[in-house]
Amino acid sequence: MLRKKKIKRPFMFGTICHQIIEAHVEGQDWHKVLDKIELDNRKLFKREIEMYGNIIADIRDIMTDYFIFWGDSLKPLKHDGRRSEHEFRIELDDGLWFSGKIDLIGKAKGMRWLVEHKTFARMPSESDRWRSVQGAVYFRALEMMGFKPFDGVLWDYINSKAPNAPGELTPTGKISQARIDSTPARIKRWIKEEGKKKSDFTKLLEDAKANQRNRFVRVYSPVKPRIVDNIWDDFVDTAHEIQEFHGKKKAQSIGRHCSWCDYDMLCKAEATGADVDWIIDREYEVEGTEHKDPKFKLEKERDEG
Q: What pLDDT score was predicted for residue 295?
């Protein structure tokens, strides 16, 4: 399986946030996890600093306030010894497998929810959520795994935009306290770095605290069984079609969604007659999928044992 060598900032941000939430839910120190991510990817972040900005600092500020903002309002439910990132692999048909990973199963407002963490630059609309296949098919996957019924999907949104820091000067030469799109943790870090007094920036901190409701949003979406049935049937039909025409049908569906896809460069190269092999060698690396096979895991454990 091909994977891009350089991950776009939104995907990089989302991937790291998932790792941090997983660490926090599993009782680990998420700051140490983030430190390790920074250490392991230091060359990448240094080389791509203009593309990513200081993504590690941004994530630390954002997630600090995320955990404070929500507190313990969502209780993760344990399954197979874990409270997050529940992997599954279900055989839909002979040789046709459905694999995935469920972020969290939690209880909030007295009900049970399938929780999906999503980072965003533009807040998804109700229409976006209604068209989401993921929630419905994951519902069915949970049923097939033996879970008790759920009340719906909890969409846990985190704004990925880098928090702004104060900096604009007033005509008198003082730091402006006009409202900016920031977070309390970012303002506090700026105050410490600049050697300022926290008491001089009360308004900025209050505005940043109020702004958290725009950066951290949870939407509770009940899901009706009929909708799950319809979407699941369409999903299975599509899976069979992919299986039947794999390697045979190469029709391209070009549209605005292409900008979200990691493989848009390959489609463009094929359409324009560019050197596809050269682009693959320069922009992509091969990632094996054997580790996702339960048989492979059992054999590996047996060999190591």
A: 41
